[in-house]
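debug: dumping io for the single-chain case to check the tokenizer round-trip. Nothing else runs in this session.
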Amino acid sequence: MPHPPADTSSDDLPEFLRASRDELAKRAYEALERARARTTLLTDAVDDTDLVRQHSPLMSPLVWDLAHIASQEEIWLLRGVGGHEPMRPEIDDLYDAFRHPRASRPQLPLLSPAEARGYAHEVRGRVLDLLDRAPGDDPLTRDAFAFGMIAQHEQQHDETMLATHQLRAGAPVIDAPEPPGAVDLPPTEVVIPAGSFTMGTSTHPWALDNERPAHAVHVAAFALDTTPVTCGDYLRFMDDGGYDDPRLWTTEGWEHRVRDELTAPGFWVRDGREWARRRFGVLEPVPLGEPVVHVSWFEADAYARWAGRRLPTEAEWEKAARHDPATGRSRTYPWGDEPPTADHANLGQRHLRPAAAGAYPAGESAYGVRQMLGDVWEWTSSDFTGYPGFVAWPYKEYSEVFFGSDYKVLRGGSFGADEVACRGTFRNWDYPQRRQIFAGFRTARDAGPV
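debug: decoded output
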């Protein structure tokens, strides 16, 4: 069954949740345009040969992502909301992500770069015409949900395409200014007292099904790192033989480490006696004060064991990010309910690397934990499952088909995640061996009664 509309009757709700449908439609327009500008940047940065090439069997050709974005937009908005006749029904199968594994997509009769661009442009023009006249009483279009969902979908694929750019060989083709450094370093950890908090949401108009419903969760006292684990921290684990000690790894993780001959995070290489990393075509010294990125769950878990700690549970992570002990309520973002700015978090491909650990003091949570949104996705110890009362909507394939122990939850968003698809309740998930994603982690420990 569809989710109920957001309850906008309470003055205690954040401004976003009290917005009128016209205001939400305006925000949907802005989110769609911001996503398309980014899609254009990522696809125009390379020539047609690079667009159709598969840069890694883990990823689709960039031209597939471009046409898939347009196909989903047509299916959900033009056909589903607007009732339009299909524009290109013969390509529905080609861009169905569940029918064709990424490794096999280059062999499909895909649209050419020119055709994909033209199709995406035509779909978007019709969608913007539809936005102002979409029915307000349909569950899909109430609060402009379907338009927000499609903006989130495009931004998620933009982050996937950014990961493809990282895997791409050759000279740099994209650039961005440097992120800020740390202005002051907080304490290394904070202790978060035992108690219940509200996890998830039932009111955010664009929240996806796996973020719902809001529910009370009791969390025992725990201590959490105030910043993500840095490259310098991780290098100490490496120097201490962390990759050579099977006692630090799960059985599956050790088998994976041996099979893939892992000795360092993804994209790290030896440069003489020092470590360097390749970042979007540039080889640079590993920045010791920056959050480590491109590590798998297996590596993060092994590091935590080496440090005498553990990965936080998903509930612990969200409590540290959202709970305000002064009011007892859960915030939309760690810092409050106002949308992210450049002072709060490293989001939206504004930079092409994590900021230094300790950056963004304006974005810290009520408990004093920093960088919980942006910079790096953070692995948690939790398997990806539905919350109590979960309802798959508007389609099972977004979340429900991935539930189970095969996938681990990531939280917080990376420098490549956009604010429309990044909030305190947003949940990401992936296989524990994945390293091409912009993932890092922070560690936790039990704290006893507080």
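debug: round-trip ok. The chain has two domains: 15-167, 177-450.
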